[in-house]
User: Fold this.
Amino acid sequence: MAENLNNSTEPADVGEAVIPPHHSEWRRIARVFVRRKISLIGLIIVVILVICAIFAPFIATHDPLKTDLRDVHAPVSTKHFLGTDELGRDTYSRIVYGTRTSLTIGVIAVTSSGIVGMAMGMSAAYFGGLVFALIMRITDALMALPGLIIILLIAGLVGGGIVVVTFALAFGAIAPTCRMMCGQALHIKQNDYVLAGKAMGMGSVRMMVTQIFPNAFAPLLVGMTMAMGMVVLAEAGLSYLGIGIEPPTPSWGAMVNEGQAYILKNPLLSIVPGGAIMMMVFGFNMAGDGLRDAIDPTLRGAI
Amino acid sequence: MAAILEIDNLTTNFYTEYGTVKAVDGVSYYVDEGEIIGLVGESGCGKSVSVLSAMQLIQTPGKIDSGRVIFDGEDILQYDSKGEKMRSIRGGKIAMIFQEPMTSLNPVLSICRQLTEALEIHLDMDIQSARERAIELLSMVGVPEAAVRIDDFPHQFSGGMRQRVMIAMALSCNPALIIADEPTTAVDVTTQAQLLELMNDLVTRLNTSLIIVTHNLGVVARYAQRIYVMYAGRIIESGPSEEIFENPRHPYTIGLMRSIPRLGEKRGGRKLIPIDGMPPDLIFMPPTCAFLPRCTYKTKQCQEEPWPALRQVGEKHRTACFVDIGEKE
Assistant:
């Protein structure tokens, strides 16, 4: 490679420079996480949750659905790490399996609403005019209705269940994402490099994907990690209201709900899943924060 | 030599709430193959709009109302501004260099990504060969250690270096014509000279035509073969550079010449004389010559007749003035 360079340009400019290997951005991202302890903790929490979800059968000690009426409200012991509930089901195993439900719903709802919302917001800002008006009126309509009402309506019409809950939560998160992306994109569109890109012959899709999206991504990522927390909480709320995940499937929200009846007798039943929700939200927020700093090229060298 | 780009009677208006801004009003100019021309005029006289119109990059409320832009024998204004044909011209056959090197590069993409973009769009290069070509281009425009700097981001470059990157981007697809819109306005004087020298060198070597749009006569003086002087949306004088500099025939050009200092001039030897007044409001244009209120040569004819068309005053020298100012200056 070096030879053919020297043939085509003045050798003085390149000299004997050997082209170094492509610098890995991954290494820099890793360094950001190592330096920022709180982000690292967040990342570790997320990783643990993912492992729990994938390997739930190996991590859990009991079948989460198996009842044992001779051993209800068992205290913390080596047999039942976190005791049992009113039907004698192992709380620890239910928490582990509940990770699957919460994480699946959270990830799918946030990414799908993120993709749809971003695409809508970006098109609205980029094309302007009629497209802008149309998309903004749609989001206005979505935002005019309280999210919970929409979700209740959907759940009421089609019934509960994990698919419906995921869909309903994703649907509710589209409008805010769309608005945020639209604002970002409108701002970015003003920049000279967008005009320069047009002068370079870029088409609309390429412009949005390669020029506007990378610039808008950092704030949106933070928004999405926050949405992650909100979706998990909303799922918990829906399950609490009894229209979310159908029993006996373990879900953190439903567990908080069931445990509240025994809050004085066996407080662990509510506190543990509540704490799990908190950990998940915290983990995603902190990891997202770190990720935002890690992918921002202008902070290169600063961290 | 054949003209590579010919702009014929171009009119671009901006339809604003306050009225119609006649930004470019029947402008014609051409560039020959391998030629460097200068488009000179003060801020807001329509220089940039005329070149952006040629690329069909005018955004609402602006509209190209008439005229032809002949590139390579075809009227490219007939192409759909978002269509395939127009896109293949932009960047591929006609490239642009913008004024602000600080904002013309995307801050979150590496230099490599930005340089390879055009190569991928127009030349269908794969990533590896595009990267090699990008390094080659970067060293060609004089960025030291190009192979290392290629992975840096724009904020790690100085203004002058960024403008070099812009030049590299413009050159990447071997365009037939480069339009440099105020390429050196945002950088300091030493860098300005280096960049101009570099551009001059590269376009001569690659036989590319170049349009330099500037408000600085000094910038074009040395490199442009021909100069067009614009005022209030029209071309008011055109001709070979030496002619314009040694024998300006339009009162506005004369005013410009008087207001720039020359190298080697004795201190106190000549006073710099600014042009009095302000350029006209492009919404409320007078029916007469737009320079009339500021003109020191005005006659009765100027106040009665509409803006004169360009007329021949030398072999290739044309001016839009009734008065024969002659060669007394």
